[in-house]
## 1
Amino acid sequence: MNERPRVYLAGPDVFLPDAHAAADSMKAACADVGLEGVFPLDADMPQTIAAKSGDRKAAWIYHANVDLIQGCAGVVANLTPFRGVSADPGTAFEIGFATALRLPVTAWSLDQQPYHDRVASQAPHRVVDERDGTLVDTLDKTTVENFGHPDNLMLCVPLVQSRVHDSFAEAAAALVRVLLK
């Protein structure tokens, strides 16, 4: 019987050309701290689905990942900005889903720059700094939040200790402390 808590490894790492190698590395780091890592690609897609494209394949992936999360005791999420200034939207959903299930979630990011600063530096022609320090998008007049987190508050606040760690290993260690208390 496996006594190690299963944890879902959320993040855009599934899109890496060496996704399975990344998964193996994260799973090994989990094992080092007493966890069993579960990667989104662990679900065995039937050949009849794998050969398809579009809605049927997407629905299978969605349901497989939701089932994996439901079978876990917690989540370690990669919030490194992906294809823009913020985390991968699929990872954001997985954090929200896990939070709704009341699972503890930890996260890590290779970019610890506050979200507010990242938006300002990546789109300086669209954002202006007003007198009170609020950033405003000049195209649609929306404000950019400034809470000091490396991503949107709705992703960072529900995390264990509302903290985004510098590395996967740190985030996994933080999760094991919560799960094994």
## 2
Amino acid sequence: MTPGEVQRAEEEVLDRARNGDREAFGDLVERYQDTVYTLAVRLVGPDLAADVAQEALLRAWRALPRFRGEAAFGTWLHRITVNTAWTLRKRARRHAVQPLEGDFEDGGLRPERAGELAEMRAGLGRALCALTPGQRAVVVLRDVYGWSNAETARELGITEVTAKVRLHRARLRLRTLLEGSR
């Protein structure tokens, strides 16, 4: 195949993917996954690279209908990967867990602390189940997955203001439920 034929073939696959053809997008993923992963390794290191690559490809799928073709698909995907890497690196730093002194003995978690953590996890699970489905969805997308208000609103089909209000009310309700369970 000549370079022109290769470009036309990719444009055809890209058009099909833009129109929701998952198989066509799968072809694009096969073509670019190594490039995306390699870039992610260079940006965030091997520990976070697989998450970055997966998230970047997911974001590309969601944004594909808005791809205008002003740049090559590979360039556009490169930009998404870079943005995703910075976002996930920042989130990883923000959510890094630092063990508390005295919680470990002989390389393992002290049994008392392990029990406390299990109890806290169970209480949080019960509190999340007590929220309305809309509140629970917003809390999970924002606080667990770290999505922005705009991404959360778009995914749930609500306005950004509604997403913010639900999140605020859900956090207040969670606080009340968790404080009541102590």
## 3
Amino acid sequence: MYENFSQYFPLWIFILLMVSTPGPANLLLFSSGAQNGFIKTIPFISGLVSGKLFLNILFSLGLGIIVRDYSILLKIFTYISVIYMIWLSLRGWNAHNKEIDNESILGYKEGFFVHPLSPKTWAMCLIAFSKFTEDFTGIFEIYFLVPISFFVSQIIFHNLWCLIGDSINKTIGLNSYLNRILIFITIGTVVWALLLVN
């Protein structure tokens, strides 16, 4: 396994680029960090990471093959995703109003379903499990390497996106205009992801 360590680098670079770049989950974290702060967003981050790990385990057990053979499933999940992500985004519509701040706080449960319903996540899982694991033969590589690699990358970058949002709140403050701009950017990204998948 260790003598072929370098064969994992393309997979890791792919995961790094996919997890670190803007997508529905990262923009929701950015908005939530700006609206509620880092500490209050930790349950949401935990849900995001758990949901993605759950999805990666399903892909390692063959979900990708089912999706590849029945592409209508991907389309169904994509449309459900768009509705769910827009709903999560709009929950923070009045987050700048501290009197009703608790209504906008996203928790573990909301976070858990983000990645299983995210078009970007499904696309990255399909690519990771079909293109980058073709030459993998070991049990560790097939069932553990990809989920663990995504897991570590998510812990780093999901926290970073949330901290960036939190720092915006602490430096320039969150007003209704900034809050709603963040919401529209998140919704725009979700719609863009939908168009890419279809």
